[in-house]
Design brief:
The complex is a heterodimer of chains A (about 160) and B (about 120). Chain A is built from 3 helices and 7 strands; from the N terminus they run αβββααββββ. With about 160 residues, chain A is α+β, with helices and mostly antiparallel strands. The termini of chain A are far apart. By secondary structure, chain B is an alpha/beta fold. Chain B contains 5 helices and 5 strands, in the order E-H-E-H-E-H-E-H-E-H. Chain B is globular and about 30 Å long. Classes of the chains: A alpha+beta (about 160), B alpha/beta (about 120). Chains A and B meet through helix 1, helix 2 and helix 3 of A and helix 1 of B.
Chain lengths: ~160, ~120
């Protein structure tokens, strides 16, 4: 009988390290502001997601409070938070999850492909990934606002991931 | 000296474009590989193209393959700037004709280092 190979997953610390690198490169060079947190993501939120298919099948999700998402977009576009529009929010959150997801994919079993990002914006916006469950996550806080990064794994017979926290 | 920044993210085009302009380059932008090819067909001839991989319409790898198939565009230096970090993907991009490969997230210094390696400068 052939033994199945154990799947080595990134740890929560890996997710945090990758997120920190993205933050320090593009969002906030004083990334010491990004700390471990426990706050729930409020109902007014932005959720961004990329899917990984191949050696590993799952998703990487970034959930931010609407305030945090606005601050991230303002930082990326170098504009005032008040001037951030929905298109800016979608572009910024999509690119951040794309970079985080791409780097997470790099330490997952491969080869695998990364999808284009999907972003949901707005009050009570809820993104469900059918057949997936959260296998790793890290809760962070930045400028007093919650940021949650999650790795999902998709397998047959798994219930929908509950992404609300 | 002209740099063409190809990325579907406006934020990333802004960031890469800003870095290139700070180094003295003029910049042009495209939101995907097809848009970039249209600009080349219309006569734009950049010295260097900085290319994302995952884009709608036409991805960066297909763009690189198309550019390398056209002798008229042989002088364009092609640098992938992408979140794809798997070794096999890097090999694919280089085999298709990309000259260098930079993984996001990056710093301005990392872009400078790669341009130095390629011998590309604004002067």
């Amino acid at each position: 009988m052939k033994a199945s190979k154990p799947v080595i997953l990134p740890t929560s610390d890996d997710l945090e390290l990758i997120t920190r690198e993205v933050w320090s490169s593009f969002v906030d060079s004083e990334d010491s502001d990004l700390a471990k947190g426990t706050d729930a993501i409020p109902s007014d939120r932005v959720t961004a997601c990329v899917h990984v298919t191949g050696g590993y099948t799952g998703s990487v999700l970034l959930q931010l409070s609407a305030v945090a998402a606005r601050l991230v977009a303002a930082a990326l576009f170098q504009i005032e938070p008040a001037d951030v529009g929905d298109d800016d929010l979608i572009d910024a959150a999509g690119e951040v999850v794309n970079i985080v997801g791409g780097n997470v994919k790099g330490i997952l079993p491969g080869p695998s492909a990364l999808s284009l990002p999907v972003v949901a914006v707005g009050e009570f916006s809820h993104l469900a990934v059918p057949g997936s469950r959260v296998v790793r996550d890290v809760s962070l806080v930045w400028r007093g606002e919650p940021v949650l990064v999650s790795l999902l794994h998709q397998s047959e017979g798994t219930q929908h991931a509950h992404l609300d926290r | 000296v002209l740099a063409l920044v190809i990325d579907d993210s406006r934020a990333m085009r802004l960031i890469v474009g800003r870095i290139m302009r700070s180094l003295g380059f003029e910049t042009a932008e495209a939101g995907n590989g097809e848009e970039a090819l249209e600009q080349l067909r219309a006569g734009l001839l950049p010295d260097v193209a900085l290319i994302d991989w995952n884009m709608p319409v036409m991805d960066g790898l297909t763009f690189v393959t198309n550019v390398r198939a056209e002798p008229m565009w042989r002088q364009i230096t092609l640098m992938m700037v992408t979140t794809e970090s798997e070794y096999s993907q890097i090999v694919r991009a280089l085999a298709a004709g990309a000259h260098e490969y930079l993984i996001k997230p990056f710093t301005a210094d990392a872009i400078v280092e790669k341009l130095d390696l390629l011998g590309v400068s604004a002067t």
